[in-house]
Structure formats: C-alpha cells, structure tokens
Amino acid sequence: MEIGLYQILFVSLSLFFIGVFGFFTRRNLITMLMSVELMLNSVNLNFIAFNKYLWANKLDGVFFTIFIIAIAAAEAAVAIAIIINLYRSHKSIDVESTSELKY
Amino acid sequence: MGSNEIIFYLLAAFTLVNGLLAVSTLKIFRAAIHLLFSLIGVAGIYFWLQYDFIAAVQIVVYVGGIVVLIIFSIFLTQQAGIDLPKPPGGRIIFSALAALFGLAFSWLLLSQHTFTATAEPASSTSVAQIGSMMLDVDKTGYALPFEVVSVLLLASMIGCIVIALKSNSEVPSSDASGLKH
Hints:
heterodimer, A: mainly alpha, elongated, B: mainly alpha, globular
C-alpha cells in the first residue's frame, strides 16, 4: 500500500491522543510537561504532512513548524523554571500540592 | 510492499511505542528516555518525508535541548530510585476511554473528508529557500513572525531569570512561613 496523507495523519493523531492520555493520568508536573511535548510534536507532524502532500508548491507548513518549535522551546524553559521554583518552596512537584498558588 | 513503506511503518511503530511507554512507565527517568526516542522517531519521519532541515531542527532543539532540560530538572527534583505513585485504576480507565473516543471520533471525521492536493509543481525545501523566505519582507515572506519570535525568546529568557531570582530573595520568608505551620 502506498503511504499517503492518511497514514501520517493517523500516526500524528495517535501521538496526540497518547499525549492526552498522559496528561490525564499523570500527576507529576514534569511528566505532564512531557505529554504536552508529545502533543506539540504531533501538531508539527500534521503541518509537515499537509505541506508535503497537499500544498507542495508552498513552504507555509515548514514555517509554522519552525515557529512552533521555537515557541515550544521557550515554553519548556519557562515551565521548568516554574517547576524548579515550585520544588524549592513546596518540596514537591505534584499538581495536588500546588493549590497554595492561589493564595 | 516496498522498502519505503516498511521504513515508514517501522518509524511510526517506534515513535508510537516509545510515546506510549513515555506516558505510562512509573520510573520518571525512563519516561524521559522513552520521550527522547519518540522525538527521534518523529525526526526520522521528517527525514522520510525529505524535510531534512526540519528533521535537523527537531533533533537539535527537542532531543538536544528540551529533553536534556527535562532530564536536568528530573535530577534536581526527584529522589533517585523512587517510583512515581501508581495512578488509580479508575483514572487510567476513564483517561484511556476519553483518549480512545477522541481518537475514534477524529479518525471518523478525517476518513470521511477527501483532501484535494494542489496541481502545482513542488517547490524546493532547501535551507537556502527557507532562509531567503524567512528574511523576506514581501507579502509571502516571514520576516515579521521571525522578529516577533525573537522578541518572545528574549522575553522568556528574562522571565526565566526573574523567576529564578525571585525565589532566592524569598527563601527566608518562605522558611519563616514554613516554621509557622
């Protein structure tokens, strides 16, 4: 069977819902961040697949992917700074113990 | 089935199995390593699609940057040799049901949709082409998002420094409040 758009879309869809599953089950902030990274990767894969198979004459999907990667790197850096700061003050990075943030 | 298809299916299975292990294993360090292999698998799919530059960026930024950052933060925040607490069975079942329902629903919608590809000839995806489009100030160029994203990176860098500094100056007060409790 020839590999087309649908096969790659299925891979990225599965990767996205694996990330959703991890985001629902995990209670540790670092593992939740990992799930978010998986979801962002599946979105990138979608952009590249659409660019390759539907609009091969343009480069827009490539640029969206590049900017998403840049923003994901910034997001991961800020998230890890917050997580380490939280660990210093609460000695735990479980989401259940972060209820004090609202006070 | 040619070798091309076999390579794609191997890459897809590698990515998905490692992704599934990354969200389900109870050892957090192993989860980070499985995440790393899953991201390498995605980079392999980019190579398979012949988007070499994106694959290189994926390896440099994700595998070399974000996963290393995550591993460092695991070293800083976790005690060695302690597993994560096992999530309750009900949460696992309902999360899996929600994810499977979402997957089935999205796939149903997707499979009923027919995509029409453009008839134009494919353009080059070389680094030179990407670079000249990124600094292009025409209507089709990406100079403005490029500048905006550089400002965003600067802002996030300053934000990280501010977050790290703030906790240092507040250590005595948080210790005092900890004693009060």
